[in-house]
Amino acid sequence: MFTITSIVIVTLIKNVGKPTFIFTDFLHFILPFTTMNIINENKEKSKRYLPHDLKTRENAVKTYRNGNSISYVLRKYHISRTSLYRWNKAYDGTLESLMDKSHKPHTPHPNAHTEEEIKWIKDLLRRHKNDNLTLGEIWYKLRINKGYKRHIGSLYRIMRKLGYYKQININSTSKYIPKEYNTPKMIGEKWQIDVKFVPTQCLGKDVPSDKKYYQYTCIDEATRERFLFWYDEHTPSNTVDFVKRCITYFEYKPVEIQTDNGTEFTWNQSKMKKLHPLDELCLQLDIDHHKIRPRTPRHNGKVERSHRNDNERFYNTLIINSLEELRKKGKNYLERTNKIPMACLNYLTPLEKRKELIISLLIQYNTFISLVNAK
Length: 375
Known about the structure:
The protein has helices at 4-15, 23-45, 54-65, 70-77, 81-90, 115-127, 135-146, 152-161, 236-250, 277-285, 301-315, 323-337, 350-374, and strands at 190-197, 214-220, 226-231, 256-259, 288-291.
């Protein structure tokens, strides 16, 4: 094997007498070798030392006890002075004495969950074992029924500690960066409407194999209050019927309705010159109909996200044999889902948020009337 020095000497001897040989040629030849050496040296220096095993600790202590200087021991085993003192104090001749001890405190933290609170949580989880309760529902029930005063984040951590939640391994993340969206602050400004296909796993034996059911969903963006209704077809006529039911349920009509571009909501205007029944209804009621960008369901994100919740909370354990049974069970679920606290509402339920916004509207109206009367 030739060293870099020998290669350089041979190169100089061969080329130094030539008139075209200049110093830059020498630099172009030698720099790659020098750069590689620097990179390899940096890699060696930047190696991170793993935690020392028990044998290394024992050898370091024995070397120190044999009379060697402490600086020699530290350099040889790449350890700190504090670690060596700690191991030397703990070592009694056995490897077990050098094992790391548990860092768990002997007494609980003063602000930790009490035994009584943990019992409340365990009892509630046992009673509702098959109800698929969400974290918000559990926290809300504890707060109402037991006077639970802790933050919902504390409840989540203690439930993970109790083994209620399983660790989720996320292999990849989305590269999409969402743009800022101005969510309406007042009730009735915008509704998001969408249709969800009822999973076939929920259909009982009495339902024909080719039968399908559809869930129409409407959500008020400001309060997150929802209205659900089920049909056996997703047609423009059913869409018009659903919007009328929404107005009856919410007891007000919105300023704007936002939907996707499905045929139950709109028609391709280049092929169909006739006005869609939903657009006709919106014109009659003076409601704006906003259609999101095609093939972009995230623009209708609130109602799409609520559909995922429906899969987890409702359809996961549902078995039905008729449309009437589906509507009956869905009505009970609708009442439940509007009473679940939500983080985006500062842990208020949609019904509580609606009440809060109505009160603020009344206060603004009374203030306006008083100002008009004062003039």
